[in-house]
UniProtKB/TrEMBL annotation:
<dbReference type="InterPro" id="IPR011333">
    <property type="entry name" value="SKP1/BTB/POZ_sf"/>
</dbReference>
<feature type="domain" description="Selenoprotein F/M">
    <location>
        <begin position="85"/>
        <end position="158"/>
    </location>
</feature>
<keyword id="KW-0256">Endoplasmic reticulum</keyword>
<comment type="pathway">
    <text>Protein modification; protein ubiquitination.</text>
</comment>
<dbReference type="InterPro" id="IPR039992">
    <property type="entry name" value="Sep15_SelM"/>
</dbReference>
<protein>
    <recommendedName>
        <fullName>Selenoprotein F</fullName>
    </recommendedName>
</protein>
<dbReference type="GO" id="GO:0016491">
    <property type="term" value="F:oxidoreductase activity"/>
</dbReference>
<dbReference type="InterPro" id="IPR014912">
    <property type="entry name" value="Sep15_SelM_dom"/>
</dbReference>
<dbReference type="Pfam" id="PF08806">
    <property type="entry name" value="Sep15_SelM"/>
</dbReference>
<dbReference type="GO" id="GO:0016567">
    <property type="term" value="P:protein ubiquitination"/>
</dbReference>
<dbReference type="GO" id="GO:0005788">
    <property type="term" value="C:endoplasmic reticulum lumen"/>
</dbReference>
<dbReference type="InterPro" id="IPR036249">
    <property type="entry name" value="Thioredoxin-like_sf"/>
</dbReference>
<dbReference type="InterPro" id="IPR038219">
    <property type="entry name" value="Sep15/SelM_sf"/>
</dbReference>
<keyword id="KW-0732">Signal</keyword>
<dbReference type="GO" id="GO:0003677">
    <property type="term" value="F:DNA binding"/>
</dbReference>
<keyword id="KW-0238">DNA-binding</keyword>
<comment type="similarity">
    <text>Belongs to the selenoprotein M/F family.</text>
</comment>
């Protein structure tokens, strides 16, 4: 019996890869378990059909995880978490590259009295969520968010000032 060793890749991933090469079939369980290894192998050995399958699988997993916290009626506990305030941290020099964030700061920020703006050199735009004691609890990058997404997120996640006083 011959063996094919591919350094850094688990045996199960190599098995799934070889199976896909010969039959264009895969087991869902194996795909989920080895998707990143299979994606690397698909790039290394130029197998575009496997690459598409892996990317599709990763996209579905990300979309599914993402929708857990923003779906109406979600029973995911993270969707129910609210915070006493937030810090919008951004580099002042890079603001020119983020017109949506500039628009939020100039026109919408006053709707959220518990949200503070903090300018930090070379910091990508992010929202730092704060608990009742002002401690950092969650950080979310907002580089590609539109103004309305920032508004929706803060409306759901930041308690109104009267509730925290």
């Amino acid at each position: 019996m011959r063996y094919i060793k591919i350094p850094g890749v688990p045996h199960g991933a190599v098995y799934a890869f070889i199976r896909f090469l010969y039959s264009s079939c895969y087991e869902e369980e194996e795909l989920k378990k080895f998707v990143l290894h299979l994606l690397v192998l698909s790039h290394s050995y130029s197998i575009p059909s496997l690459r598409r399958v892996c990317i599709c699988s990763l996209e579905q997993e990300l979309i599914s995880d993402c929708k857990k916290c923003c779906t109406e009626g979600s029973d995911d506990s993270t969707s129910k978490i609210t915070y006493s305030g937030a810090i919008l941290e951004v580099c002042m020099r890079k603001l020119v590259f983020y017109p949506e964030i500039v628009g939020f700061i100039e026109e919408e920020k006053d709707k959220f009295p518990t949200v503070k703006i903090q300018y930090l050199f070379n910091s990508p735009p992010k929202l730092i969520m704060l608990d009742d004691d002002g401690q950092h609890k969650e950080t979310t990058r907002i580089d590609n968010w539109k103004r309305e997404h920032i508004l929706q997120f803060l409306q759901k996640k930041v308690q109104p000032k009267s509730a925290s006083s």
